[in-house]
Amino acid sequence: MFDRIFRILGLIVFAIIGWEIGVIMTGVSNPLQDLESLKYVAPLTLVGAVVGWIIAPWITTRPARYAIRVVRQIPIEEVIAGSIGLILGLIVSALVAIPLAKLPPPFGPILPFIASIVFGYLGALILVLRRDDLVKLFRSFQKERGDQAVTTEDAVAPAPSPLPPGPTPLLLDTSVIIDGRILDVAKTGFLPGPLLVPRFVLSELQYIADSSDALRRARGRRGLQVLDDLQKLDSPRLEIVDLDAPDVKEVDEKLMALARQYGIGIVTNDYNLNRVAALQGVKVLNLNDLANAVKAIYLPGEHLRLRIIQEGKEPDQGVGYLEDGTMVVVERGRDLIGQEVELEVTKALQTSAGRMIFAAPVRDSE
């Protein structure tokens, strides 16, 4: 919607620019009264309108969206540190500007302005680079204030934690949010919460929702809708947090770094993240494992009826699927493709990637 509005504005503005260029080139103040000059002014106006329609989003809404994504990915500690550094730098530049303004021209009028830019930039840069020391300084002040508020039992209040109080929280990754089943699980009350969504995960969802690919865009918007529905639940509580691992770039690696740092778990349905996290000793709650655990399982020797729909990987194998999507590999079932047959379960395998059942036609197993 905003793209269309700015396209229309761009069309009008650039059409006016094209008209003015034509007026300057022809030297006629009113081309409408001079048909000869109008031959030059009208095409320039039309070209300006087309150019404005095309490039308007690229100089308005597209840069704005990019800037929003970048700002969302900047940790709040950097924003605070940069703001404090900028203020301190401008204060120093204001003090320096007093003697600089007394210098003879052209130095007097110019140097104070240059000093404000240089000191403002240096102040913001230094504080951003030393943001960790700034955070430690603030925490030391908080600790000193806590030490002064000792209770009668001389008990010192614990240092503030970046995690919400109460039960151990869980981190949600992008895949489990887009999947959507986390909402149904949360409604059952099996997750005590709180559920934490770091801002870099939210930024990735926003990026997917803004994708030019229709499928990715639909997945991203579904994830944002799931978060909106989770926020409406009384329990478990969903919180958007500023936790980050600035030294790590990939979203999955950031989640694992936070999980290790704070001793909390990750909720996911990403098989690769599940394996890597397990190798690093990170607790993972895989929704696929949960779904497999509550599925009705067929034991070896039990019978079921199934339509075989395609060939298997091995010779003479056929493949069918249960209503819940479980794959059933039928030995000697290639010649039965398209038929609904009675099968006897011979083996059932369950992994984090899903469940697979092996079976054979009853007439072959007898």
Our count of domains comes out at 4
Class per helix and strand makeup: alpha/beta
What is the CATH domain class of the largest domain? Answer: Alpha Beta
Tally of separate helices: 14
Q: What does the average pLDDT come to? A: 80
Helix coverage percent of residues?
55-70%
Describe this protein's structure.
- With 366 residues, the protein is of the alpha/beta class.
- It has four domains: 58 residues, no CATH class; 64 residues, no CATH class; 123 residues, Rossmann fold (3-Layer(aba) Sandwich); 69 residues, Nucleic acid-binding proteins (OB fold (Dihydrolipoamide Acetyltransferase, E2P), Beta Barrel), CATH 2.40.50.
- The chain contains 14 helices and eleven strands.
- The chain has a six-stranded mixed sheet with strand order 6-10-11-9-8-7. A five-stranded parallel sheet has the order 3-2-1-4-5, with helices on both faces.
Overview features:
366 residues; alpha/beta; Rossmann fold; 4 domains; 56% helix; flat
Compact overview of the structure:
The chain has helices spanning 2-26, 35-59, 61-73, 76-100, 107-129, 131-148, 174-179, 181-188, 199-209, 214-231, 251-262, 271-279, 287-294, 362-365; strands at residues 170-172, 195-198, 238-241, 265-268, 284-286, 303-307, 310-311, 318-321, 327-330, 340-351, 354-361. The chain has 366 residues and is of the alpha/beta class.
